[in-house]
Amino acid sequence: MSKPFSNKPNLSTQENSKQKQLEQYRVDDRNKRLTTNQGVKVTEDEFSLKAGERGPTLLEDFHFREKMTHFDHERIPERIVHARGFSAHGEFQLYESLERYTRAKFLRDTSKPTPVFVRFSTVAGSRGSTETARDARGFATKFYTEEGNYDLVGNNIPVFFIQDAIKFPDLVHAVKPEPHNEMPQAASAHDTFWDFVANNQESAHMIMWKMSDRSLPRSFRMMEGFGVHTFRLVNEEGKAHFVKFHWKPVLGVHSLLWDEAQKISGQDPDFHRRDLYESIENGDYPEYELGLQIIPEEEEFRFDFDILDPTKLWPEEEVPVQKVGKMILNRNVDNVFAESEQVAFHPGHVVPGIDFTNDPLLQGRLFSYTDTQLIRLGGPNFHELPINRPVCPFHNNQRDGYGRHTINKGPVSYHKNSIAANTPAPASEADGGYVHYQEKVEGYKVRARSDSFKDHFSQAKLFWNSMSQIEKLHIIDAFRFELGKVERESIRQQVVDMFANVSLSLSQSIAEAIGVTAPREGAAEIADSSPALSQLNTTFHPATRKVAVLLKDGFDGAKVKAVLQELEAQGIRPEVVSDKLGMVKGMDGMELKAKHSFLTTHAVLFDAVYAVGGGETDTKFRKNAAAFLKEAFDHFKPIAASGAGEQWLKEEKLEGPGVVIESASGKFAKSFIEAIAAHRHWDRKIG
Ligand code: HDE
């Protein structure tokens, strides 16, 4: 097995146009003199200017006033949704020209990569909330192309709760903490959310995804991204194809267990950003392939769903995903506020060759994103912030406003003009000008939903039927948990009745645990399935998995080192856990550094455990190690043991699939690596 990563160096500012541009804004304050914002050197930063040592502070202390005023204004409104997020820089390399589909240059030119910036996020929680909440994840990518910025503002779930943007404020009000007591934070397990669901049944399909393992990603590096809406690609001849965009993670799609996710929320609420940040620092650059599903315009009505309906996916078995390029994230941000917080995405940021459709959800989004930036970023000049600036020049007659950086020269700020020979001048299509796709549109002005949008359950059924047994059990447990937290029995009943339309057996299993009447009638099981929807059919790889090595003074140094070397050769990341930080001494003089103690870490923060132990018996260590192993075992994780570790497993009766014992295994490290590659051992019997 080889590492799945391209062996590429960190983004060089020379070759990456966006990094080159950002370089002029990056400031290193080390070894510099402290100054005011006006550049005046400051002599004292601890004591304000006073009338006498014990006297009042004087208003003329400009340094104090400036420092305090700036501090008082440090916060900006958080995003209404997707407030909690983290980002990285990278680049996108196209495999082969897509000129048959699009005139977008970055999708035709394979000669050089396009710089990108990606922001991952949860949806419901506030800016400081836990990252492992059960939630959809945002996956927003800004491509800094030579023809302008293109934003693919997607989620890790391919469908959405609602079909029309006018309902978005209602959905978000319902899922956010309830207004009378601001509870619960970052959680959909409460009355208003489920009341919304029961009374807006178009949400059924998305709810199935949200109750599935997809909403508990193991890592931002291990989740898919979806553009959700149907867009258009338009080529040089003006011919259009419908398209759906996908990001496919090279490491496969993997999830946490709910029990783990909740414990991680306490142990490390920053779990996902830490994982992304550390991976990039380690050179384990996350990679995603860009996938396209294409439907020719002539086939718009070939399907038994409306391709403009954002609650529907295009089954991959019916419309295959063509992989057209790869994105690699290889540089961490330098400053979270300046980059992650100030980045402004917008599904309406498109380049020639990419166009919209009449998906009513997309149409509404085209309004919302600039509108929200105006309040969040304080005015209409947010495109001038370093992270948002295109890498190509931009010229127009827009002027002024809060925070204007550009110094436009000359008297002209209007079109048409003669003073500047009517420039800046519109470009022709041949010269790279954006021409909207000329779709013929006619109709009555109505507030209505097309009949073709009214089937809310077929694809929810397809999703349920495509799940493996273990995934189905997780979905049932998720419904039981979420609805178990709903106080109003009538809401619980409505939801159970609603999901009888997806699967009678599912709704009955939920009802059983939440004190409501089990439906007697509902959807029968169906035969259709889409294997691409099950995470059991994803890619499995041991690389970048984190292994806790439980180590104590007196371990067999040579043996442990050999095992760790084999793990590291596969890109696995072992980290020593002991009873205290510092060096752990082997019996042969070998020393390994403990990165964690039992006090500072927990089994839920690792993918696997290697139990080694050490010299003499120590009850406290033994107790901590046993608890650690039991937790990993109950979460179906790979476990390996040698020396004293073997004894611990025996005493705790931890045995079965995915448990590798050195004395019983000829190729110990190899077997452990295979167990790690499988990630979880679902056929293990847990007590
Ligand atoms: Fe968003 N969404 N959204 N959304 N969305 C925002 O824009 C909105 C929708 C998504 O990391 C906001 O800058 C409406 C679908 C992501 O900065 C806001 C509707 C999808 C992000 C907004 C939707 C998304 C946002 C809040 C219904 C998946 C975070 C702050 C029509 C395809 C981007 C902001 C980042 C953010 C509006 C539905 C993805 C309020 C009106 C569907 C990833 O403008």
β-strand amount:
15-25%
Whole-number count of domains:
3
| Integer-rounded radius of gyration | 28 Å
Largest sheet: 10 strands, antiparallel
Please name the CATH architecture of the largest domain.
Beta Barrel
- Uncertain segments: none
The CATH class label of the largest domain is Mainly Beta
In short, what is this structure?
By secondary structure, this protein is of the alpha/beta class. It has helices at residues 17-23, 62-72, 168-175, 191-199, 204-210, 258-267, 271-282, 336-341, 360-376, 458-466, 469-484, 489-499, 504-513, 557-569, 619-634, 644-652, 668-677; strands at 85-94, 114-122, 137-145, 148-155, 225-226, 231-234, 240-249, 287-296, 322-332, 354-355, 546-551, 573-578, 582-585, 591-597, 608-613, 639-641, 659-661.
What topology emerges from the helices and strands here?
Elements: H1 17-23, H2 62-72, E1 85-94, E2 114-122, E3 137-145, E4 148-155, H3 168-175, H4 191-199, H5 204-210, E5 225-226, E6 231-234, E7 240-249, H6 258-267, H7 271-282, E8 287-296, E9 322-332, H8 336-341, E10 354-355, H9 360-376, H10 458-466, H11 469-484, H12 489-499, H13 504-513, E11 546-551, H14 557-569, E12 573-578, E13 582-585, E14 591-597, E15 608-613, H15 619-634, E16 639-641, H16 644-652, E17 659-661, H17 668-677
Parallel strand pairs: 11-12, 11-15, 12-14, 15-16, 16-17
Antiparallel strand pairs: 1-2, 1-9, 2-3, 3-4, 5-7, 6-7, 6-10, 7-8, 8-9, 13-14
Helix pairs in contact: 3-4, 4-12, 5-10, 11-13, 12-13, 14-17
The protein binds CIS-heme D hydroxychlorin gamma-spirolactone 17R, 18S (HDE).
Residues 79-82, 85, 119, 121, 138, 140, 153-155, 160, 165, 168, 228, 343, 345, 361, 364-365, 368-369, 372 line the site of CIS-heme D hydroxychlorin gamma-spirolactone 17R, 18S (HDE).
